[in-house]
Every structure is written in C-alpha cells, then in structure tokens.
C-alpha cells in the first residue's frame, strides 16, 4: 500500500490516458475511505509486479480490470480477477 | 497547484507499473539494448573530443548529452523488458549471474548518464553483451561475438 507514490507507466495498454514512459501519482488513501469503484484506475500487484489498469466490473468482491487500449491490453481474463488485497493504490494524478 | 504537485512528485521514489501490450508475441531481442549501449559509449567518446567553449561547442555538447541520456534510458528499458517479460525463473536458476549482470548494467546505464566516463560506458557495453549471450543460450542458439561496424569498434553478440 502506498500513501503517496510515483509510478512510471511501462507499455501501451493505458493509452490514450498514459503513454509509455509517462508518470502518475497514486495513493491508497482514497481506499481507506471507500472501496475501489468501477472506472477507477488502480495500481495492483500480481506475482511481485505492479500493474496499472482500469476497474471495469466488480462481482462478488472481485475486480475485473482492463486497459483502456483494449486492442493492446492484458485483462483479467489473462491475469485472473483481482482481489481487494492486491490493489495497492488509486491513480490520482497524471504528471 | 500543478507546480506544487510536480515539486512534491520529484521527492518521491519512482516505481514501475506495467501496462504492457502483453499480447504474448514472443518477439524479444537484445539487439536494441546493444545498439543503445554502443550509442552511450560513442556519445561519451564524442563528449571527450569536443574542444573549445564557443556557442557551437556548447550546442554540440547539449545535443550529444541529450542523445547519451536518451540511449542510457533505452538500455534500461530494453533490459527491463527482457527481465520482466522474457526471462523466467528457470533462466535465472540456470544462469546464476544473470540477475547480477542485469542489475550491474542498469546501474552502469545510470552512471554513464551522470558522468562522462568512457570506462563505465565500455563496462556497460560488455555487461549488455554478456546478457545477450545468455539470452541466445536460453533460446537454444549459440551466441557469437562479431566485430561491430560502429565507430566504437566494439563487438556485438548475434547467434549461429
């Protein structure tokens, strides 16, 4: 979990919001108040790696996440649905 | 407000968040990392050769430094792709030096950006060549070193 952290985005799946190499500020503080919602852009950790995707759907406490650039994105079909514990921050600002 | 956020962000450590294309294309190649490392070396050599303090010299220094910076970052990015997307646990087990080599090369890519240091740039090229040799071995190919056609006159790694 990150109170406030900076992330360099690697890859193209969040275009046009984030191009490869652009940076974002992310924080867990919003999720101390409420749970992640549909349309949130979240940072989550799977197998030791951080990913950035957008929440598309929430069912039974599991989060289906997907890149904005759908023709170029790994989604929850590949990653598996994300649990609340795996979400480490909400993207709050594009640098 | 934007300036304040930007100033705060400069104080924060940087993490990487993956938003890869992640279509498992399987196309990986250490060639770009090698070219970028040779470019860092070449730009370092050019910086040591620029004479005088004229406006033209300062302009050339700025341009060459910019290219050195850009290719230092490219080395880091290309190695990051190999490390995160291609190399698997079994590769790190079969080649125990691989993790250390990648870490060394990334550090050298930073050192060569921070300084005008030809020895570090040569070490960077050598580290990237050794990583490339391991890459080709993991592909079941036999790596070979050949003389590059670059002005650096160093070698590049390809395969049989």
Task: Give structural notes.
With 95 residues, chain A is mainly beta. Chain A has a single domain, classed as Ribbon (Umud Fragment, subunit A), CATH 2.10.109.10. Chain A has two helices and seven strands. Chain A has helices at residues 30-33, 76-79; strands at 5-10, 23-27, 41-46, 49-59, 62-66, 82-83, 87-94. In chain A, strand 4 (49-59) and strand 5 (62-66) form a beta hairpin. Chain A is globular and about 35 Å long. The mean pLDDT of chain A is 85. With 160 residues, chain B is mainly alpha-helical. Chain B has one domain (30-159): Nickel-containing superoxide dismutase (Four Helix Bundle (Hemerythrin (Met), subunit A), Up-down Bundle), CATH 1.20.120.400. Chain B has a two-stranded antiparallel sheet with strand order 2-3. In chain B, helix 2 packs antiparallel against helix 6 and helix 5 runs antiparallel to helix 6 (118-138). Chain B is flat and about 50 Å long. Strand 1 of chain A pairs parallel with strand 1 (14-18) of chain B.
Strand and helix layout:
The complex is a heterodimer of chains A (95) and B (160).
Chain A: E1 5-10, E2 23-27, H1 30-33, E3 41-46, E4 49-59, E5 62-66, H2 76-79, E6 82-83, E7 87-94
Antiparallel strand pairs in A: 1-2, 2-7, 3-4, 3-7, 4-5, 5-6
Chain B: H1 2-11, E1 14-18, H2 31-49, H3 55-86, H4 89-94, H5 98-114, H6 118-138, E2 143-147, E3 155-159
Antiparallel strand pairs in B: 2-3
The total number of structural domains of chain B is 1
Strand order of the largest sheet of chain A: 1-2-7-3-4-5-6
Largest sheet of chain A: 7 strands, antiparallel
Profile the largest sheet of chain B.
Answer: 2 strands, antiparallel
- Count of domains of chain A: 1
Q: Specify the CATH homologous superfamily of chain A.
A: Umud Fragment, subunit A
How many runs of DSSP E, i.e. beta strands of chain B?
3
Which protein chains are joined by the largest interface, and how many residues does each one contribute?
A-B, 30 and 19 residues
Which range does the strand content of chain A fall in? over 45%
Overall shape of chain B: flat
- CATH architecture classification name of chain A: Ribbon
Number of helices of chain B: 6
Helix content of chain B: 55-70%
Assigned CATH class of chain B? Mainly Alpha
């Amino acid at each position: 979990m990150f109170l406030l952290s900076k992330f360099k985005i690697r890859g193209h799946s969040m275009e046009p919001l984030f191009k490869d190499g652009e940076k974002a500020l992310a924080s867990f503080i919003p999720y101390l108040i409420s749970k992640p919602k549909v349309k949130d852009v979240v940072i989550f950790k799977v197998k030791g790696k951080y990913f950035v995707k957008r929440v598309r759907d929430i069912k039974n406490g599991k989060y289906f996440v997907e890149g904005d650039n759908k023709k170029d994105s790994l989604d929850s079909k590949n990653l598996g649905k994300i649990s609340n514990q795996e979400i480490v921050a909400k993207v709050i600002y594009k640098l | 407000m934007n300036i304040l956020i930007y100033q705060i962000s400069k104080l924060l450590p940087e993490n990487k968040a993956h938003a890869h294309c992640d279509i498992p294309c399987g196309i990986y190649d250490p060639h770009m990392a090698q070219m970028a490392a040779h470019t860092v070396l070449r730009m370092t050599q050019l910086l040591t050769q620029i004479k005088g303090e004229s406006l033209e010299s300062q302009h050339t220094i700025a341009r060459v430094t910019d290219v050195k910076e850009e290719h230092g970052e490219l080395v880091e990015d290309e190695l990051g792709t190999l490390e995160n997307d291609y190399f698997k646990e079994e590769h790190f087990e079969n080649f125990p030096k691989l993790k250390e080599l990648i870490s060394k090369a990334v550090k050298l890519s930073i050192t060569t950006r921070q300084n005008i240091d030809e020895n570090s740039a040569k070490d960077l090229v050598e580290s990237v060549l050794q990583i490339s040799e391991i890459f080709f071995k993991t592909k079941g190919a036999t790596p070979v070193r050949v003389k590059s056609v670059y002005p650096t006159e160093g070698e590049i790694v390809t395969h049989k």
